[in-house]
Amino acid sequence: MKPRQSGLPERSASWRAASGWRLRRTWPLHLMIWPGLVLIGLFSYLPLGGIVMAFQDYKPWLGFAGSDWVGLEHFRFMFEREDSLKVIRNTFVISALKMIFGLLAAVAFALLLNEVRSTPWKRTIQTLVYMPHFLSWVILGGALTDILSQKSLLNRLLASMFGSPIFFLGENGWFMFTVVVSDIWKEFGFGAIVFLAAISGIHPSLYEAAIIDGANRWKQTLHITLPSMAPIIVVVGTLSLGNILNAGFDQIFNLYNPLVYERGDIIDTFVYRLAMLSGDLSFATAVGLFKSVVGFSLIVIAYRVAYKYAHYRIF
Amino acid sequence: MPHVSRAYGWFTFANYTGLLAVSVLCVLPLVHVLAVSFSGAAAASANLVGFWPIEFTWDAYEKTVGNRNFVRSLGVSVIRTSAGTVLGMLTVLLVAYPLSKENAAFKGRSLYVWLFLFTMLFQAGMVPHYILIQRLGLLNSIWALILPSLVNVYNAILLLNFFRQVPKELEEAAWIDGAGHFRTLVSVYLPVSMPAIATLGLFTMVGHWNAWFDGLLYMTRVENYPLATFLQTVIVQQDFSKLAARPEDLENIAQRTIKSAQIFIGALPILVVYPFLQRYFVKGIVLGAVKE
User: Fold this and answer.
1) 0.80 exceeded by the pTM?
2) B95 touches chain A (CB under 8 A)
3) For B60-289, CATH number?
4) Domain hosting residue A284, numbered range
């Protein structure tokens, strides 16, 4: 305690209240956080122990203690097996395409919507464009398989124009195309929200100055809007790098079939089939662990880069 | 605008038209599903239906509502969504409040923050999670769909950032009146943050309604499936057999419209909640994401 208070016999009640002494007690804060802590302990940290099976030949009836240790065997196997290499490659390609074109589409949409001056128009467009984001891939996958099937109305139209229907979901090249395009279709509107916010934060005086200098809308976009958006574009782009191994399980699982495993199968769908259909639990865990470790490293790097160059922090 | 060039005028026209076309494209698939669901079975199976029903009928909806598995899974979804949202928001609230305090005011905060943050960055993977649920004896229990996702760290971060913007004077006034932490949370932070909490609550609801994979993984019996999982098995997994080119049997003719009706019913709650969501989410996301 500070010496000047030592003469006082006891602090008055009002002094204690005003200084918020109750708030100095932190046990209620610890108490509040407990339920959440127990839950993540149980459902996020406890499963981490299960990772040992990636280094075992895990047999459910033997358990973790009784199963044989195989060291890095599964990982060596993973880099030798043709199908796991193929799946890793597909994952990178699909998510890189989604990332690049998704970012471009969102930025372009934000810029174009910014040129719409009428509020009712703007509202209507936004309402329609954000909607697919909120629907699950089960719903959209059901709708898309219907629309893109070989005998659909769309394909009959294509057939009458080009002579043959397109097997969007049954041919490898087209499947990849469909996956990338439909993902952009679902997310570009919602992804543009953050860019629209950045645009609305640009100070009007910048535009006024440009108009006086004789810049038209195009020049203003090029020299004011885009440079002002650059930091947030860099942040969004960088942070999405941390997700490069998430090529979209929900989407692909609901659209794919064995005909397109060659180019459409990704790590997550591969792990699911290994574990649930082949019962290859240890190998599936190893492939999943590989994905988690690479993903974790990428996220950490991405956040560091985003913080360094754009001073972005989530906390 | 002082002078609008002729070129900009043309651009504006093209821009409005283009954006309108893109917007319509975003809802067209759902309109098609709706049209098929109200069409006669024959027209639907012959792929004649575009964006307007042919031979309008409620038949598919009647059959769907009469399907016991469908109704049961709807019930599972309603329970999981309501319980998951209420309990989830409660947990997130209780996590966000202490973490919104400064490090100096709450010893141990940074440790807690990292414990929560880490769960977002690194996951054990599907198989260890499955084994955990199995060993806890939660397979086929609705708790397997609720408990694992109860702590939404991302929502907690958004909410704690919101809490930090609440003026300190409000909190200090409560302290002077003798309120403790629980009291401050309930009487000061909760009312002030209602818009943020409503937004996160709606997002949580949508997440629970749409979640299908946990149902597929943790429920081994169809009667325990939530609606999203039921739809996944009906819509997606059956379609695969259709690829094998034998479309003209009676079974499929009936199924086409029923499938569409089920898809639409699955999407309906989202469409109903959506206008409320939209009012808040732009503000909510911007608040959380671009705070500095």
Assistant:
1) yes
2) yes
3) 1.10.3720.10
4) 76-310
